Each structure stands twice: as C-alpha cells, then as structure tokens.
Amino acid sequence: MRILIKKGHVVDPSQGIDEIGDILIKDGKIKEVRIQDKEQKAKSKSPLTQPFSSMEEGKGGGEDTELRTIEAEGMFVIPGLIDMHVHLREPGYEYKETIKTGTAAAIKGGFTTVCCMPNTYPINDNASVTEFIIRKAALEGLCTVLPIGAITKGQKGKELVEMGTMKDQGCVAFSDDGLPVMNSLIMRRALEYSKAFGVPIISHCEDLTLSEDGVMSEGLLSITLGLRGIPAEAEQIMLFRDILLLKLTRGRLHIAHVSTEGSVELIRDAKKRGVNVTAETCPHYFSLTEDSVKGYDTNAKVNPPLRTKKDIEAIKEGLKDGTIDVIATDHAPHNRDEKLREFDFAPPGISGLETALSLSMKLVDEGVLTMSQLVEKMSLTPARILGLNGTLKPGADADITILDTKKEVRVESKKFASKGKNTPFDGWMLKGFPFITISKGRINEWQ
Amino acid sequence: MLNEKDLLGIKELSVEEINLILDTAAAFKDVLGRDIKKVPTLRGKTTVNVFFEPSTRTRTSFELAAKRLSTDVINFSVPTSSVVKGESLIDTALTVQALGADFIIIRHSSAGVPHLLAKKLRASVINAGDGTNEHPTQALLDAFTIKGKKEKVEGLNIAIVGDIAHSRVAKSNIYSLTKLGAKVRLIGPPTLIPRETEDMGVVVFHKMEDGLKNVDVVMMLRIQMERQGKGFFPSTEEYSKNWGLTLDRLSLAKDDVIVMHPGPMNRGIEISSEIADGPRSVILEQVTNGLAVRMAVMYLLAGVKK
Questions:
Q1: B164 and B75, same structural domain?
Q2: B171 and B103 share a domain?
Q3: CB A344: neighbour CB atoms within 10 A?
Q4: Which positions in chain A touch B200 (Cβ < 8 Å)?
Q5: What is the ipTM of this complex?
Q6: Which residues have C-beta within 8 Å of that of residue A40, sequence separation ≥ 6?
Q7: Do residue B155 and residue B112 come from a single domain?
Q8: Among B88, B111, B165, beta carbon nearest to A341
C-alpha cells in the first residue's frame, strides 16, 4: 500500500526542509520526499508536475496499485512527535490508563512514539516488566511505545537495576521519575554504570527533605490558600547536584520537567561550560502559573508545581536559546475520583497528550520558536537523546503528523481518548490540531 | 445581605459583609443576655456538625448557636462515622445533605475542603477551620470582641503573636483586621512567619519588645507542641523565653491593652497565668461572643437566596 501526501508544508529539521512538497510512503516506510523547486514555483501553482519515479515503478509492475492520496495543502507535514515522558499506568493502574488508551491519546495528540515511565505496579525495574510492556504495546498499542526503566530497584534509591538486560529488552533510558535518587553515591553510580550501555539517566530533580509534603509552589499564594509550599530551590538544589555528578562521571543526563527560572539558569550555565546535559519542560510550565490552583483546583496540582509568570518567561527564553532541548508532556492520567477530593490528598499530574501540540503551537504564534525549532523539540531532539529517528528521510518508518494549524477547538476533557480527564485546560480554545497521524504507515484521522 | 450561601473564609467577604455580621451579632448578644435564650428563627432547619478534626470549643459553640436558633443539630464526628471505613469526603457530605441538612459546619485538616463541598452541595457550608487556611468565625468573634471593648477596629495597633505559619486563626484575623482598618503586626520566630506574609499588609517583628510597643490589642496564638523537633524552634522553654507573654512585656503596650487568645491555652508557655486570669484578659468574653457571632452567621446565611 502506498500513501501520497500532497502539497503540504514539509518541516523536517533533520534534513533542513521547510518547504511545500510531497511525500510518498510505501509499505510503512518513507519512500521519497519531493520538494517544490524554485523554477517549478515560478512556473505553476501545482508544485509537482513530474510524478515520483517510484510511482511509475508501481504502475509498470502492475502490483500494489492501492494508493491513498492525502491533500495536505495549507497544512504542516512533520515527523511524528516523540514524547519522552509519559505515564501509561499499565501494568497495575489500568483504571487510570492502559497502553491502548494512552497510545490512542498519543496518536490523537500527534505523537507516534511515547516513552513510558517505570512507576507502574509492578515497577518497571526488571526485564520481565519491560517485556510485558513491549508485548502489550505490540498487541494493542496504536503507536510506538518505548519503556523507560527505573534507576533503582523498586524506585527506592538504593540498588541499581539490571540496566544492560533491561536495555536489551527494550528500555531506552532510566529514571526513578516521581522520585529523585536522594543518595548522591547511588546517583553517581547510575551515571557511571549507564555509560556502558549508552543510555541516558533522566532525573526528576527534587530535594525531598526541602519539598517535604508540599503541594504547590511556595509563596504568597500558598500562604493565602493555606497549602504547604514547595520552594523553587527544592528543584534547583537537586539539579545542581546532578550537574556536578554529571561533570564528575561524564555520563549522560537528561533533566525532566524543568519548572523554574533558577533551573533554566543552572542548565544554561552548565551548557556554557561544556557539560553534556539535556533538559525538557512541559506545556503546562510555559502555559500556566500557580494562579490555576486558586479555588483548590486539583487538576492544577502537578509535581513539580506550577510556578510564576517570571518562571514562564524564563522557560520560554530557555526554549528559545536552546537551553531547554525538549518539550515532553509528563502525561499523568488519573481517575476522576482520585482528583475529586482534598487538595492535599489528590495525586499530582495532568493528562497532557491531547493538548501538548496546540499549547506548544502558541510558542510558534508568539515567535518564541520557529516551526522547525518546535519540531526539533518535539521530535528530532528527543530522537537524538534516545537514539531514535525523528526524520522524514527515505527509508525511515513512516511516522508522520499532519497538522492543521487553522483548526480551532475548545478543549473538552470528556472527549479525550485518554482515560485521564484531569486537565486544567478544559474549556480553553486552542488552535492547531493533528488532522492525520500516521504511525508506521497506518493512517489515523479526525474530522 | 450576604452574597454567598456559604461562609468559606474572611478572604471572600467584603467589609460591608463583615460589618453586617458584626451588627447582627450585637442583636443576638442581647438575646443571649435574656432569661429565655432561644429564638424560633430557624425552627425546622437542620444543622450538621461535620468535624474531621477533634474540637471541643468550636463544635460546642456551633452546636449551641444552632440550638439557640431552634434548628435541629446532629454531630457527625470522625471516629463514629463511615469515614474510617474509607468513604470519600464527597460521599460523606452528600450523605449528610441527603439527611436534610441545611447547614453543614465543617472542620478538616486539609485546606480547601469547605470550598470543595460548597461547590457540590446545596446546603450552606460554614468553615469551622480548614487546615492552615482559615477559621472565619473565630476572626469574626475576635473583631466583635475588639469592637465591644474599643468601639471600633479602625486605627488600632493589633499584635498577633506566635505560630503564624500554621495558624488559620492568624490568617483569618489578618484578613479581617486589615479589612476593618487596623494596623496589624505579627510577632514570632522567623521559622513561623513566612517571609511573604509582609505582602499581606502587615508589619513583622521577631522580638516581643519591639512588636508590643504601644499596641491596643495583643492576640496570642496557641503554640503547637508538635512543631518542636521539626526545626521550627528548639524547645518550648526557649520559645517561651523569647515569645511568651509576660507582665513585663505587656507593660510595653498601651495601658488599656486587651489580651486575647483563641484557646486552648498553654499556660506558662505562650501566656502567663497572671495575664490569662488578669484584668486585661478578654479570653472568656471571646467564648461568649462566639455564640452570638455564629448565630448571626447562620441567620444571615439562611436569608441568602440559593
């Protein structure tokens, strides 16, 4: 089967493409990308007067005549998005989300690859759990699922997992996400040992002794709401420790969900001094302030907590100047009843897969990022960090997102494909949604 | 008229609403001075006290206020309820409402619980203390007591002393007293007064000797023993030595100063017995006034169109 995507605005930073063109897909792989050249542009409105050579082959051979043509005029055609930070909840918490519903949400949000964090039940701290996830994803997943293993057994911060075996089974990175490795010696060992297998360590930076049982950002608002605060320093102290350990070990470190101005400064500084660190942020950290917590809205409870306007500005600046490499969702679906309770006891997290792209498109509208830079942050760079593709080069898997930038939709969490309806963006008007997401050549489309 | 069916906090009230409650409370205080202390105003209504945290004074005060207004009162407290069986907060509240409650008086250790219930319930929700957020009726009875002694709150120098960080009483009083035009000072160790509190229109002191000068009102807070050993202060002895209210320190205040305490007191720790039992103390009047203020709140909420 072949698919022809016609006249879309192709943006593929891996090849430096940012032009109108056509893409031909054959048997789940990208066959050819043809860009309208300048002469053709001048001559005619129709960019591609000459047929693809491979299409002629098809005609000649007489076999495989099935061709699906997608008219993509006025749309962006980009490499499928890669989310290196999601929680799919399976195994163990299927009432919150499953691999099936989580990948459906991913596809709906324009993602063709998601990397799932290990805090399932049982925890993904051994190759059997990794194998279960991979098999289940092969059976029921609508997009590619790549597991992230725990750094330590039981995420207890004490003993390293069998990273080599788990990598062989399919883990692409290691993280005790949700919990930091508080013991500096164990973190050092993790950064050292992982070098043998070329896998990054992803750090959830939080000094638990400082954040204690805080539930929102510390400041005047936490005082007036009577909620326990978490100072920005809880993130920054741990981040600085991890940067120092990275310098010591020369391993590979990726910082999860950067939320504060101070963190952006620390990472910028480290990069300037040549430290090989990468970092991600999430759409809620550049879209919302702590004000969303007012009225005790548990959908705005997230860890790290939403911060202030200054932090948002710093994060945008960090995205713009390359300090922050990646936009990930930290998709954290929860059951309705778990969020419908005391703010103190509601679990933190936002169901983010289905709003991430349109929230990030705002950065393009505001001029913070170019479209090409956005694609880098949501596809190419995560691919590079994890050793994946993130490209439209011929021969690559046909993972493609076709984005309708004009499509404006009011967010309705009840229509989410995810089981997690927990979003602080309910009711927001957002612009820019996937029109079609192609995962390994399989077309998923929405009206 | 009050604007909302619920009393969630002082933050949410306008100055007019605060004054309306205080004026109405004055009328009820007259009633409480009569031989027959009960009025038929809210006969047929039902009040349920839902206390997720232990409380004797506030619960009793609400119970008596509700009875004085002729409502039926039920006490729903945690150890005897199904909360221990794992029932969710919302289910507990809906059950109480289904029993026909018109007023739900709630105390909970988590901030925001009354707000959550107010959204889900038709009944009037009255916050009797939520975590470290607010305790609005305490602040109202304190303002009522100050007004009774000093005619008006505006322009007075009022010092609140102790664990501001963990005190819902302090928070509600800061809102109410600043709204009514008092000059509010906070006194206590820096570990117990968050830095950002200064942005709430108050002045912060860390020494009693500095903060008590020329005050009209001293409001002491209960120091919670469990803060000891958590790094807030090293020992109750040291706390008492530095921030306890003694006669010497009180002499720095104005001659006609009044001393308040929301109770229960730790005698000899945050307040000396000479002061608690002395002529400047209005601590027991606060308790009496609490009844009138709570009656006023329930009476006014009953008049809000739902």
A1: no
A2: no
A3: 19
A4: 220, 223-224
A5: 0.92
A6: A47, A48, A49
A7: no
A8: B88
B49 and B59 both lie in a single domain? yes
Q: How many domains does chain B have?
A: 2
Q: Which residue of B115, B130, B135 is the best one to mutate when testing the A interface, meaning the one whose CB has the most A CBs within 10 A? A: B115
Cβ atoms within 10 A of the Cβ of A51, count?
A: 14
CB pairs under 8 A between A and B: 58
Interface contact flag, A341 B133, Cβ < 8 Å: no
CB contact under 8 A, A296 and B108: no
At A205, which helix (H) or strand (E)? none
Calculate ∠ Cα A155-A156-A159, nearest 5°: 95
Nearest CA in chain B to A344: B110
A399 carries an active-site annotation: no
CATH number, position B295? 3.40.50.1370
Residue B3 is assigned to a structural domain of this protein: no
- Chain B: residues touching A (Cβ < 8 Å): 11, 88-90, 108-113, 115-116, 130-134, 165, 168, 171, 194, 196-197, 199-200
d(CA A232, nearest CA chain B) in Å: 14
Q: Which of A219, A226, A228 sits opposite B168 (nearest CB)?
A: A226
The answer to whether residue B113 is domain-embedded is: yes
Chain A positions in Cβ-Cβ contact with residue B114 (cut-off 8 Å): none
Interchain CB distance below 8 Å, A225 and B197: no
B7 domain residue, yes or no: no
Structural domain for B280, as ranges = 136-284
The answer to whether residues B242 and B180 belong to one domain is yes
Q: Which domains, from first to last, does chain A contain?
A: 80-386 (3.20.20.140)
Global confidence as pTM: 0.93
Residues 6+ apart with CB under 8 A from A427: A410, A411, A412
Smallest Cα–Cα separation from B222: which of B170, B264, B285?
B264
DSSP annotation of A293 reads: G
Is residue A101 a contact partner of residue A419, using CB atoms and an 8 Å limit?
A: yes
CB environment B163-182: b (16+ within 10 A), e (fewer): bbbbbbbbbbbbbbbbbbeb
Specify whether B46 is located in the same domain as B84.
yes
Question: Are both B170 and B39 inside the same structural domain?
Answer: no
Q: Which of A225, A301, A339, A341 is the best residue to mutate to test the B interface, defined by the most B CB atoms within 10 Å of its own CB?
A: A225
Which pair of structure tokens corresponds to residue A343? 């703010």
> Which positions in chain A touch B134 (Cβ < 8 Å)?
226
Q: In what order do the strands lie in the sheet with B103-108?
A: B72-77, B46-51, B103-108, B124-130
- Smallest Cβ distance to A224: which of B11, B89, B110? B11
Residue B110 domain-assigned? yes
| pLDDT tens sequence for chain A (447 residues) | 899 999 999 999 999 999 999 999 999 999 999 997 655 555 555 555 455 655 554 444 445 568 999 999 999 999 999 999 999 999 999 999 999 999 999 999 999 999 999 999 999 999 999 999 999 999 999 999 999 999 999 999 999 999 999 999 999 999 999 999 999 999 999 999 999 999 999 999 999 999 999 999 999 999 999 999 999 999 999 999 999 999 999 999 999 999 999 999 999 999 999 999 999 999 999 999 999 999 999 999 999 999 999 999 999 999 999 999 999 999 999 999 999 999 999 999 999 999 999 999 999 999 999 999 999 999 999 999 999 989 999 999 999 999 999 999 999 999 999 999 999 999 999 999 999 999 999 999 875
Mutate to test the interface with B, among A213, A293, A296 (most CBs of B within 10 A): A296
Distances (CA, A) of A214 to A115, A335, A345, A444: 28, 22, 11, 41
| B111–A340 CB contact, under 8 Å | no
Q: Does one domain contain both B146 and B262?
A: yes
